[in-house]
Design goal:
- The complex is a heterodimer of chains A (652) and B (286).
- Chain A is an alpha/beta fold and 652 residues long.
- Chain A contains 23 helices and 29 strands.
- In chain A, a hairpin with a 6-residue loop joins strand 24 and strand 25 (511-517).
- In chain A, helix 2 packs antiparallel against helix 3 and helix 3 packs across helix 8.
- The radius of gyration of chain A is 26 Å and the shape is globular.
- Chain B has 286 residues and is α/β, with parallel strands linked by helices.
- Helices cover 38% and strands 22% of the residues of chain B.
- Chain B has 11 helices and 10 strands.
- In chain B, the strands form 2 sheets. A 6-stranded mixed beta sheet of chain B has the order 6-7-8-3-9-10, sandwiched between helices.
- In chain B, helix 4 packs parallel to helix 7.
- The relative contact order of chain B is 0.15.
- Classes of the chains: A alpha/beta (652), B alpha/beta (286).
- Chains A and B meet through loops of A and helix 6 and helix 8 of B.
């Protein structure tokens, strides 16, 4: 089993020390830099981390203080988290793509004393808000580019801090070892700020026990080993990345690779060939959209091969699901397909070595899920939360279903309240929300049960959990029928042409929708059909695009009509937005989830126009550029009607 | 955290320099004159493109040459890198008068440039294009190159390392293997800068590095130019007609109009100069 091969310990620093002793020569971190993969073994990671920790100690980082980590996935930044823990301080990773003002809230709330920033971009953000952060004492950066001429009284290069640490090993090494030994499982390990779908982000305090027990439990559930490898590319501030790239790596001894840059991820992934992979559904969707686009452009033979074998794989997969065994001929064709299509395809995607693949966070489309599973990728779903140290439920290898999110991870108990809301209790349940006992009490009761905020039920047939929607988003139409917006939005989003959808209908007569086109897919269509367009806005308002969108909406309506619960939620009117919903404008969270309230307020005029039955609506929207400046765009949008269908049940 | 020293708050330049040193800031090393133009006049037949122009470029500075369309900016740059030979006047480089030289000889002296209309090898990858900038640094002969072992291999590894550093510096890892012709304009400009940097120039000439870019691309480019100047200590002479950009990043500015020099000073002074304002905005003629 996994845990036997790696070292043991109840905190991250102890685990690192044990891994360095036991797995010394195995690779722990990789990073592609200067076009070449650089590797560090566990022994090297331990040495580097320790040097940094001693340096931080020398600079005056004290036990219990908070240190923020801001940047993209880099081994140096991961090490700095453990380094902070070695000193007894608490690392607070922060979403790196936020503007300075967004970071200020978290830095202020967490009373951060030290910051480890990746590069000039992040250092500049810190400098722009430093006068509002009296507690901030030192900033450490890892990439010196452009920073040479900065004021270096409180600004330090990463390797200088390490050097400082190495020079002080003799003097302070023993003291630090004492701190490491004195820290135990129940002590605070990390503080992670939730992305804040509603209101200000909350600081979730997790202990070493929370994270390590859950990481170990899930790793054993999936049989992860020290020979596995993962690629770290999701925001470091997200609990999932902390569990996958830190927790499970430390627990099993597996190697975590960091891509060269966000843009080279696909290329780097092909080179690394991870065996353990997590991606949000959006990413799998994006890959499939790209793939579809490229197949549209491919030659006739290739296209035929692709279509034939994918269809065959799906057919066999459907057969297996129905409990039938594939025939000899089926098997032969699968083998041939593996040679000609599935194998090369998985190789191109960098997924040919994946043993365990996970997706979570949003509902997954049937086509999408089936596609990846049928070509032989073990894609599963899990259901989790920051407050639970990720794992609540996950699919076992042999019982993966589209509609459900799996069985409780070993150690987790689940109960469903009368209201339909899902509650859980587990060793991974967070200690508290930082400086917010009220919210803690609201979320976690005296017996340790935590409300997920999601409505769902246990599927009797499979014994797995099924999630419907956010409990608070589930509403009622004016006629009393159930309204589950996310469910409908997901149906819409499964069309490759639709990037994002927002459906309104709570306490209304009928449902209306906002759509965002997918610039990749629609742009490619425009190119193939010689449709000229000047901008996103221009393409989004093209009559042919609107016609396609209408067809998609009506197809969704047709499928909703078949659902007895949701047939009343068919979309009567819709519009295609003139701008992409964006996290910079507060319309999405940093994890790319729709912020309903903001959209309700910001686009109130458009919603009213849709319900008023008008044909057109003019609107002006404020937009925020990447550097934080604001501008506005105005447009006149066409409002469209869509046909609805009689409910199947009503007809019967 | 302590505050950054501010030039205005200091009593004089010396005090400011001391404050900077106290804060661990290495003061900008603007040193001796690297290049000096003395009374340059350039004619094409009857057209006088440049008339009696003199200015200097000092080590480590960002020197901008600005002016309205047709002022003679590009001609000036072409004189500096030896593509045009002025009829009158002298070019002094590193304290020596420069005789008639071919552009490739001047490139070997450590002057590299980019072009207004991108001049990359469209069919070659980003990496190969940047590698081509290393040409003046390649020393092994055709024989070694052909068998590609021993010295040629060692040399190529070293060149590749330098190129990768530049790719990392300019953040173009994702397009390393992409044929340049397929890249958007803004990125092509960046690759061109990369190729010029590959020659490890002591003087870098940029011909309208920001022409045709949107605001964000311009900001990125400014950042790269400043970083090049910072990190490698490269002296930069650039032509630009976006005044905003020039005023932000240049140390000193030469203003040309109809082939004549009408201003030469630090940005703030140039900006307030009536002659310059007239040249840009036009003056009514009676």
């Amino acid at each position: 089993m996994a845990a036997e091969t790696s070292g043991s310990g109840d905190t991250f620093p102890k685990l690192l020390r044990a891994n360095a002793a036991k797995l010394g020569d195995l690779p722990a971190s990789r990073e592609k830099e200067y076009g070449i993969w650089q590797s560090w073994t566990w022994a090297e990671v331990h040495e580097e981390t320790r040097a940094l920790a001693l340096g931080l100690m020398e600079l005056g980082l004290k036990p219990g203080e908070r240190m923020a980590i801001i940047g993209t996935n880099r081994p140096h930044l991961y090490w700095s988290m453990t380094a902070a823990q070695m000193v007894g301080a608490i690392p607070v990773p922060i979403y790196h793509d936020g503007v300075a003002e967004e970071m200020q809230y978290v830095l202020e709330h967490a009373e951060v004393a030290f910051v480890v920033a990746e590069d000039q971009e992040q250092v500049d953000k810190m400098l722009s808000i430093q006068d509002r952060l009296p507690g901030l004492r030192h900033v450490i950066y890892s990439d010196p580019r452009g920073l040479r001429k900065y004021d270096h009284t409180t600004l330090h290069p990463y390797d200088e801090v390490q050097k400082l640490g190495r020079d002080n090993e003799a003097e302070h090494g023993a003291a630090m070892d004492q701190t490491i030994d004195a820290t135990t499982g129940p002590d605070t390990c990390v503080m992670l700020y939730t992305s804040g779908t509603t209101g200000q982000p909350k600081g979730v305090v997790l202990s070493h026990d929370n994270l390590l027990v859950m990481a170990r439990s899930a790793a054993e559930f999936d049989g992860l080993k020290s020979t596995d490898s993962a690629i770290a590319y999701l925001p470091m501030a997200w609990v999932g990345d902390f569990i996958f790239s830190m927790g499970q790596s430390y627990v099993t001894g597996m190697c975590v690779a960091c891509p060269e840059s966000q843009d080279t991820l696909m290329h780097d992934m092909r080179e690394i060939g991870p065996t353990y992979f997590f991606a949000p559904p959006r990413m799998f969707e994006g890959l499939l959209t790209n793939l579809t686009i490229r197949m549209e452009d491919a030659g006739r033979t290739k296209k035929w091969l692709f279509d034939t074998f994918i269809a065959h794989a799906k057919a066999v997969s459907a057969k297996r699901k129905a409990g039938e065994e594939p025939s000899g001929m089926d098997r032969f064709k699968l083998w041939l397909g593996e040679m000609l299509v599935y194998g090369p395809l998985k190789n191109t995607l960098g997924m040919n070595r994946i043993r365990v693949g996970y997706t979570a966070g949003e509902a997954v489309g049937a086509d999408l899920f089936e596609f990846y599973r049928s070509i032989g990728i073990n894609l599963k779903q899990l259901y989790g939360q920051t407050e639970a140290s990720v794992f609540i439920t996950q699919h076992p290898h042999d019982a993966v279903e589209l509609e459900t999110v799996g069985v409780p991870t070993p150690g987790v108990e689940i109960k469903i309240a009368d209201s339909g809301e899902v509650f859980y209790r587990s060793p991974g349940v967070f200690k508290e929300y930082y400086k917010n006992p009220q919210a803690t009490a609201e979320t976690k009761d005296a017996e340790g049960w935590v409300a997920t905020g999601d409505a769902g039920f246990m599927d009797e047939r499979s014994g797995q959990l099924r999630i419907l929607d956010r409990a608070k988003d589930v509403g009622k139409l004016a006629n009393g029928a159930l309204f589950a917006p996310k469910y409908i939005e997901n149906k819409l989003k499964f069309f490759p042409n639709i990037f994002e959808a927002v459906v309104f209908g709570h306490e209304r007569e009928s449902c209306v929708a906002f759509l965002n086109i997918d610039l990749n897919a629609v742009g490619n269509w425009a190119e193939r059909n010689n449709v000229a367009y000047a901008s996103y806005m221009d393409l989004a308002s093209h009559p042919e695009v609107l016609k396609t969108m209408r067809a998609h909406v009506e197809e969704t309506n047709a499928s909703l009509a078949e659902d007895p619960m949701l047939s009343a939620c068919q979309i009567t009117r819709f519009l295609v937005l003139h701008k992409q919903l964006d996290a910079d404008d507060g319309e999405l969270t940093r994890t790319q989830k729709v912020r309903r309230k903001t959209i309700d307020e910001k686009y109130a005029d458009l919603i009213e126009a849709l319900y008023s039955g008008a044909e057109k609506a003019s609107t002006t929207t404020e937009v925020t550029y990447e550097d934080g400046r604001k501008g506005s765009i105005s447009a006149t949008l066409k409002l469209n009607d869509a046909n609805t269908f009689a409910s199947k049940q009503a007809a019967a | 955290m302590s505050n950054h020293p501010v030039a205005e708050a200091a009593k004089d330049d010396i005090e400011y320099a001391h404050q900077e040193i106290d804060h661990g800031i290495q003061p900008r090393a603007i040193g001796k004159t690297v290049m000096e133009m003395k009374n340059i006049t350039l004619r094409f037949g009857g057209v006088t493109a440049l008339e009696d122009i003199s200015f200097d470029i000092r080590e480590g500075e960002i020197r901008a040459i600005i002016g309205p369309n047709g002022a003679g900016k590009s001609s000036m740059l072409n004189v500096i890198n030896g593509f045009y030979h002025p009829q009158e006047g002298e070019v002094w480089f590193h304290g020596k008068k420069r005789g008639p030289m071919k552009p490739h000889q001047i490139a070997k002296q450590g002057i590299a440039r980019t072009f207004q209309n991108i001049a990359l090898f469209k069919g070659m990858s980003t990496l190969d294009n940047i590698m081509s900038g290393r040409l003046t640094k390649m020393h092994t002969n055709v024989f070694w190159q052909a068998i590609w072992s021993g010295p040629a291999e060692r040399e190529e590894v070293e060149h590749r390392r330098r190129c990768e550093e530049i790719i990392d510096f300019l953040e173009i890892q994702a397009i390393r293997k992409t044929p340049v012709g397929r890249l958007p304009y803004g990125l092509q400009k960046r690759v061109e800068l990369g190729r010029a940097l590959a020659a490890e120039p002591s003087l870098l000439l940029l011909d309208e590095p920001m022409a045709g870019m949107n605001v964000e691309e311009k900001e990125d480019m400014c950042r790269f130019i400043l970083d090049v100047n910072d990190e490698f200590g490269t002296t930069i002479a650039l032509i630009e007609h976006d005044m905003g950009v020039v005023m932000d990043i240049a140390d000193r500015v030469v203003v040309l109009d109809y082939g004549k020099k009408i201003g030469d000073d630090v940005p703030d002074v140039v900006r307030a100069d009536q002659n310059v304002i007239d040249a840009y905005l036009g003056v009514p003629h009676d």
